């Protein structure tokens, strides 16, 4: 079973996005801004009362998967291609969940040394899903 953890939004300007989420939605940064070397992006967790609801992410390279997705989304109403990047979930057994997805023809990606996994968008109606091992 999946339990919602947070959503991630790809943004063009992380500082501006943080400021907008503070003023428009009264969200606060949770923890420090950081860099994710696997995805090559800076990110800032945001939320309420110390609980993360959202990760704002800004790609650091034009060659990153996030940057490529953003380029595909560019249109007159969205000149930087910003938007939802992924939905994150916890589950009791990540490996068992991945095996079920793969048994049903879905594609799953895993990073060496990580307990997380990513369900490829083609397996989930074009939503990238990140899976975290649940906290027992």
Write down how many β-strands occur, each being a DSSP E stretch of 2 or more residues.
9
- Full CATH superfamily name: 2,3-Dihydroxybiphenyl 1,2-Dioxygenase, domain 1
Cα radius of gyration in angstroms = 15 Å
Total domain units: 1
* Helix share, percent: 10-25%
Please state the overall shape, judged from the principal axes of the Cα atoms: globular
CATH architecture: Roll
Give the H and E element order. EHEEEEHEHEEE
Tell me the number of helical segments per DSSP (H or I, 4 or more residues long): 3
Distance between the termini: 14 Å
Summarize the structure.
This protein is of the alpha+beta class.
Key phrases:
136 residues; nine-stranded mixed beta sheet; 2,3-Dihydroxybiphenyl 1,2-Dioxygenase, domain 1
Question: What does this entry look like structurally?
Answer:
With 136 residues, the chain is of the alpha+beta class. The protein has a single domain, classed as Roll (2,3-Dihydroxybiphenyl 1,2-Dioxygenase, domain 1), CATH 3.10.180.10. 23% of the residues lie in helices and 38% in strands. It contains 3 helices and 9 strands. The chain has helices at 14-25, 65-73, 94-103; strands at 2-10, 28-29, 34-36, 41-48, 51-59, 83-91, 108-110, 117-119, 128-133. Strands 1, 2, 3, 4, 5, 6, 7, 8 and 9 form a 9-stranded mixed β-sheet that branches. Strand 7 and strand 8 form a beta hairpin. The longest helix has 12 residues, at 14-25. The chain starts with a strand and ends with a strand. The mean pLDDT is 95.
């Amino acid at each position: 079973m999946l339990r919602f953890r947070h959503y991630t939004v790809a943004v063009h300007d992380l500082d501006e996005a943080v400021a907008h989420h503070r003023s428009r939605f009264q969200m606060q940064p949770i923890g420090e801004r950081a860099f994710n070397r696997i995805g090559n992006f800076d990110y800032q967790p945001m939320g309420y009362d110390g609980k993360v609801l959202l990760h704002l992410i800004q790609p650091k390279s034009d060659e990153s998967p996030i940057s490529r997705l953003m380029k595909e989304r560019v249109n007159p109403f969205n000149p930087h291609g910003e938007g939802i990047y992924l939905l994150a979930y916890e589950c009791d057994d990540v490996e068992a969940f991945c095996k079920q997805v793969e048994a049903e023809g879905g594609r799953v990606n895993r990073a060496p040394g990580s307990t997380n996994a990513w369900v490829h968008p083609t397996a989930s109606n074009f939503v990238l899903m990140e899976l975290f091992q649940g906290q027992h």
